[in-house]
Amino acid sequence: MKLCTFRHPHTGAEHVGCVVDEQVFPTQFQSMLTLLETCQNDFSRIELQPSAFDLSSVELLACVPRPKSLRDFYAFETHVRQARQKRGLDVPPEWYEFPAFYFSNHHAITAPFAPVKKPRHSHMLDYELEMACVIGKDGMDISREAAEDYIAGYCIMNDWSIRDEQMREVKIGLGPAKAKDFATTLGAFLVTKDELADRKAGKGFDLEMEVFVNGKRYGGGNFKTIYYSFAEMIERASRDVMLYAGDVIGSGTVGTGCLLELDNSRFPYLEIGDVVEMRIERLGMIRNQVV
Question: What is the DSSP letter of 193?
Fold first, then answer.
């Protein structure tokens, strides 16, 4: 099943739909949070209205426009190693002991095709190509063996970052904070986990991930190279605390999925007018212009 949040062509109101063969069938839910809270991963409770809209005729919003929380992990070893090597640092041994995350701003979600405003004081605006899972059932102290039962589905995620601010913050030992709180793009489609079952590989999925700037491929990789699984992330995140339907968990950046890892004489940081496009197999595409 492929779920989306769209603006209803007749009323202009937000609505949740199910995408089937390039058509959007409205459901009985006006918000994705209400759907997730009500269904608790029992999607048989979703009712489709008989009349549909052409997918190309509706405005697609982020699949979860207002998550309950947003945790972003740091789960691809290649990204961690290359980003740190560029600063003359090794991967800390603690990274191999548990999956680490930080809280991002769940009130700053950007739609998949909306403009993203460049922060005024940044000269090092970056993108980060990630996959996210959306929690579909409430739970605490969830084991990695049981974690898949709590996942509703997956979407593309761009964790926009301002690196000059981040470099200042990490010296204090707290953060990233202000470097990450201005925008996160979530894809239009929440693809339920059954749609990816045939692509399971290692701790992830055999899904190609790519990022383009102004039409030129800048980087990417395959999600199957992830070091920590979403199940391990959920186990860590839910320890001694509730996860709720509507929480979003980011994977962290795939190797070469951000400018920080690259040669910035060839791949410069983003400027106003640049268009960033990301694609993940089966999850779709997002495209945002910097303004």
Answer: G
